Amino acid sequence: MRPFAYATPPDAREAVLAVAERPDATFLAGGTNLVDHLRLGVAAPGLLVDVTALTSAEIDDLSDGGLRIGAAVRNSDLAADRRVRARYPVLAEALLAGASGQLRNMATTGGNPLQRTRCVYFQDVTTPCNKRAPGSGCAALGGATRNHAVLGASEHCIATHPSDMAVALAALDARVQVLGPDGEREIPFTELHTLPGDTPERDTVLEHGELITAIDVPDLPIATRSRYRKVRDRASYAFALVSVAACLDVAGGEIRDARIALGGVAHKPWRAHRAEEALRGAPATDESYRAAAAAELADARPQEGFDGGNAFKIPLLTGTLVSTLRALAGEETRA
Amino acid sequence: METELTLRVDGATHHLRVDTRTSLLDALRQRLGATSPKKGCDHGQCGACTVLVGGRRILGCLALAVAHDGAEVTTSAGLAPGPDEAHPVHRAFVDHDAFQCGYCTPGQVCSAVGVLDELERGWPSAATADVVAGPDLGDARALDREIAERMSGNLCRCGAYKGIRAAVAEVAGVEDGARR
Q: At B130, which CATH number?
């Protein structure tokens, strides 16, 4: 591991300036992904700026009825919060589907969305990877692609985003509060992460030195009837092959509105606007759910791979979406 | 680069100077002789390094010592109330044959203590049928599912899971939940 300096500035603004002025500096929060990357050689910063004590660890009520989640709120505390469980069960369920109890006690609200792909080639510094070493190539293409993307990938990168929490936040129209060297700005959560395109080294639109200080979830009555469903290779403590975050508003057998995001299928949490559009006004039937999945997956492109590839994700995602929506439609509103 | 910090480990205060790269696990084991937490994978995948910090279970291998200045750390060894006494979780592990080689056991024990506290607080898990209502502790089968899910971050290569589940269930107040 390369030697690094460690700093705990007095406040968030000082922390932002400290990182902004040094290209080899980076923020440290829960450390669950970064410390592993230091050890693997995937990351080699010269300065770690610890922001754990510099952003809020509180969940505050917003005047519009939503919640402001401080960046330092641990994943476990967020999942246990009674307001989150009652108003946004999909968010609590997504958090609880991720990692382990120990990791959820460490991981933070600000850090979780910024965790990096678990693509095995990205994490193995002996293989080419355009995300880790731009221009070096992509070892995943034609490699083991079971865990890779079927939506929005490029010829340079087919990695997926690993966060479960981020999939729920994408469905909930969350907003990201950011502090940078030039001041504050707000980013819609669905615009935080980028698709790989020609710059797979970028995961988000954040500039170097910009710090997530909080994430807001708006008042969203539809979210009281919501679920997170994750499919993985073992029953617990594994990343998603596919996942679905869904909120559904059904009345008189007709779908009035829906919020859907998909995980494990793209470089970013995938907000399923096409599926939502297909569902609005449709009867609450399996045929409608199937049609919605087909609309969303019309442009899906499975990857070939020596492990058999990932074409299985199309029917798996379809089935997961159908069963999740079916369960939600049959459920009394929880609140 | 070196830095100074203070750690309180199993009731004793230590001042030490460490390289900034030192994990909390390595500081405990190599600098302070607290060898109850074990190094398994060193990548946050096995749970052998689990310790309690401020009463909450975390992974010592993914924690930088420098980021835990002033922390109150409890290891499995420090859970014992006295030199010849065992913590209820220790006793339950012995009674239920909840280990074979024992290497993962201190991590399992710390994780179990964390799980029991989380259940007590009514925290839901991925095995909880209704996250709004919280875990159902009255039903032995539901509790066994809760324990299996909540302990999933601790691997046991000997496969003592059945005994581990029963041991944790017993301390949680239910007789041998794993036998169902």
A: 1.10.150.120
- In the 8-state DSSP scheme, what is residue B45? S
CA distance B2 to B24: 14
Residues B34, B40, B42, CA angle at the centre, nearest 5°? Answer: 90
CA dist., res. A301 & res. A319, Å (int):
17
* Residue written as token pair 């909840």: B98
Nearest to B131 among A36, A93, A99 (CB): A93
pLDDT in tens, A35-48: 999 999 999 999 99
Under an 8 A CB cutoff, do A99 and B125 touch? no
Delimiting residues of CATH 3.30.43.10 domain(s) in chain A: 5-52
The answer, for B43 touching chain A at a CB cutoff of 8 Å, is yes
Asked if A194 and A268 touch (Cβ cutoff 8 Å), the reply is yes
Is domain A222-329 annotated with CATH 3.30.390.50? Answer: yes
A280-309 pLDDT tens trace: 999 999 999 999 999 999 999 999 999 999
Angstrom distance (rounded) from CA A30 to CA A112: 9
Distance CA B111, CA B117 (A): 10
- If we measure between CA atoms, which residue out of A131, A227, A13, A181 comes closest to residue B126? A227
| CATH class for the region spanning A5-52 | alpha beta
| Chain A interface test: which of B123, B154, B156 (most A C-beta within 10 Å) | B123
In the listed set B77, B110, B132, which residue is the last one of a domain according to the structure? Answer: B77
ipTM score for this prediction? 0.96
Which of B17, B131, B144, B149 is the best mutation test for A, with the most CBs of A within 10 A? B131
**Total domain count, chain B:** 2
Residues 6+ apart with CB under 8 A from A244: A167, A227, A228, A229, A260, A261, A262, A263, A317, A320, A321, A324
* Pairing mode of beta strands A226-231, A183-188: unpaired
User: Do both B37 and B95 map to the same domain?
Assistant: no
Judge if B108 and B149 occupy the same domain.
Answer: yes
- Ranges assigned E (strand) in B25-179: 50-53, 56-59, 72-74
CB atoms inside a 10 Å sphere around CB B140: 17
- Which domain range does residue B50 map to? 2-77
How close A97 comes to chain B (CA, Å)? 6
DSSP A72: T
| pLDDT range class, residue A333, cuts 50, 70, 90 | very low
In terms of domains, do B9 and B31 share one? yes
